[in-house]
Amino acid sequence: MENVKTAKRFDVRRLVFTALMGALSIVCAELLKFTVPVMPKFIKFDFSDVPAMLASLTMGPVSGVFVCVLKNLWGCLTSSTGCVGELQNLVLSVALVFPAGILTHKNGSVKRAVTGSLLGAAAMAAISFPANLFIMYPIYAQVFKTPMEGIIGMYKAILPSVETLPQCLLIFNVPFTLVKGLIAGIFSVVLYKKLRPVFSNLYRE
User: Quick check: pTM over 0.70?
Assistant: First the structure.
């Protein structure tokens, strides 16, 4: 009976913390986003993956994915991309937080958190290429009746030598996504290191 009560108490704490990280992720997505000079203006950098990563590292991958879903559902309410941008963000964020949570959650060492964050960033960057090439950009072009040449033209304005969408994605999107994942991982690991004793106590209770 005591074990059941402890499990329920921990589940409530996990739910509260996950919801808190979801709210923080929304705030980061809305307030801490900005364009990057070397990327087309429709691509923005933000810190909303940090709370999702922290939830995944401390509470498990399901909590991290839930934060990603909550953030993008909120984003759909005010989306300027017909929710295509939110779909892209969801796919890439899940690719980042899920492997990190899988690797770290059961054995919560800082070393595993670092390894999980690196793995998540690599997965995020790798998935960004086929996801954008075969799903996101074609959907965006259909929804907004924009020819693919127009989208490529936004990249050509930065680097005139690019000619095809795969070139644009490999030169711009994949490195950008990798850096974004690594930055989220760095911040998350630093916070995780500070909060790890708290969550260790939760597991022991």
Answer: yes
